[in-house]
């Protein structure tokens, strides 16, 4: 939904635009529910939902589903064993130590999280999941939530990614499915919009998935696209792509 600097009113080239705001107004006027799906925390999404008039939110990459202005919510634990309330802190230190200079906590956005753990860096996800399994944490997996600006890790020599460490069975797609069932909505009547590999997973759980154009900058997405037959790639990136995706689902 947002463009450079997290603004709802900037296109990718940083020119001012009202396209996304106008599309949002038309979405609400049509009576279509908007649910924010993000890696952000509950407090961040309660505030964002109020600003954008959203009907609910899915946070921490699918670990939290909220509705009724945040007064009601459900934490989806997936495969996390009952005796754990969070990922053990010592495991985080070991995982970072196993990837020196290539993985770190996504400071300061890693704080205040209820279930998942947020990292940044550039590592091999499959190798990391194998490492987790060998360490006795086969119920955890690492998810790629997209690219961030190089200045976050200037020493990396590559564009860093944001990763979320979450239990198996926790993800944006699973949370969307849970929320649609709670609402009594046929998944065929739902549309998802995103820009990352973790967003693309939602395509399995909705009638149609829209990717904004900058999603193709993600190194994994072009190879993943052939596995889906319900994905539309918008011609524009960020806010303008979001606006055109919204207009595609409005009554004509």
TrEMBL record:
InterPro entries: HAD-like_sf, HAD_sf. Signal peptide: none annotated. Keywords: Hydrolase. GO terms for molecular function: hydrolase activity. It holds the Pfam family Hydrolase_3. This is HAD hydrolase family protein. It comes from Frankia nepalensis.
